[in-house]
Amino acid sequence: MLRVDQTGTILIKNGTVVNDDRYFKSDVLVENGIIKEISKNIEPKEGIKVVDATDKLLLPGGIDTHTHFQLPFMGTVSVDDFDIGTQAAVAGGTTFIIDFVIPTRGQSLLEAYDQWKKWADEKVNCDYSLHVAITWWSEQVSREMEILVKERGVNSFKCFMAYKNSFMVTDQEMYHIFKRCKELGAIAQVHAENGDMVFEGQKKMLEMGITGPEGHELSRPEALEAEATNRAIVIADSVCTPVYIVHVQSIGAADVICKHRKEGVRVYGEPIAAGLGVDGSHMWNHDWRHAAAFVMGPPIRPDPRTKGVLMDYLARGDLDCVGTDNCTFCADQKAMGKDDFTKIPNGVNGVEDRMSIVWENGVNTGKLTWCQFVRATSSEAARIFNIYPRKGRIDVGCDGDIVIWDPNQSKTISKDTHHHAVDFNIFEGIKVTGIAVTTIVAGNIVWSDNKLSCVKGSGRFVPRPPFGPVFDGIEQRDKVRNELLRKVDRKPYEDDNTKNSSK
Ligand code: URP
Ligand code: ZN
Ligand code: ZN
Fold this sequence. Notes:
Radius of gyration: 24 Å
Number of domains: 1
CATH class: Alpha Beta
Largest sheet: 9 strands, mixed
Number of strands: 18
Strand content: 15-25%
Bound molecules: N-(aminocarbonyl)-beta-alanine, zinc ion
């Protein structure tokens, strides 16, 4: 569904192309949605749209690995739907999102997938893909995972270790899900928090009379995230399959990931904009509405060092790509938990501000180079989820998803100017220098001069093939480790009587 003026053809002049391995000054020509030429002094053909990018950077469109648009969750539905959510995305320089299909316990994965895809196809303003959560385990689930991988373009499945009595799976179920992921060449993803302990912690807080939003963090401290992260990695490594920890929110969890990586375990970690941009002390704010707006799981940590340390991990490459977990609820929805924090719908914004928050806290602090920024916000996600270099790179033949980034232009983030449906912004008042001035999706300008010009439903579903680069070398690692598992040859057991009688 394209507008007539959407030709997918554009010439960008005089910009600095930044990929994750190098940057250079060049013009870029996109034709019919695909990058056609990258060279200096491309002459514009007659009638072609030309944009000047002098003193600006040309970045591969951002990839948000983790959104929940119009998610039915905790008795309500997140307010950023696939239309508003992808509008907010492109306004911030993100041109590709991966959302999560979350079937209910007992529901067919295929049925849920079809439902999510319909919701998205009708509304998306940029390309997208779907992860699928596995919330129960059976032969049927196993068969449907295969269909999703082989016929529906899914190469990632998420397990929840939290949300007891709804999405949470047991360790044994997780073991079987991971084994199936390995057979199918799909990456296993995990929401890592010890759900049983969270459940007990919640009861304890309520018994103590702590009913406000601070009870959310107090009932699910860092240690429960670190413990579950460790457990997920150990289980995945026991079946020798790559595992991706979504929304790494604490120093303890990041340390665990780093320790296992040092030992050669194939684990990936995803920090999110919230954890890199703010701290969780807001949950102690005296204004209930303000405090509740920061409630998400795992909690944004109150330890003020956290965001800087997570950024250090990202810069070192010990955390991989930045998502958002964008899952927004307005004040009246959050108020479902006004007397009991366990009923506050979990989730915050991020999809619009992710790129600027990472630039501000990463590039402007001297922690990330331009190339590392591109890696963290786009290329690495494309590699892990096996759509690179179609996405995540500016090169001939790649999709024409390009952001014209002004590293010197500033803005102050606010709910009054953001493009979300939600009535709160967790980054309110933060000044960022480094913003997307123009966003191009498939060769069409969708954001420029502070104005959106998207076409609802014009985004495409991008299938992701299995056995991506995260599986490279996995077979050999498994083989070598299995060779160490040796049976000991022994004579058959004889009890003492048999032994004596044979003497
Ligand atoms: O609080 C969160 N994270 N809400 C969305 C669901 C999830 O756990 O990712
Ligand atoms: Zn989660
Ligand atoms: Zn999530």
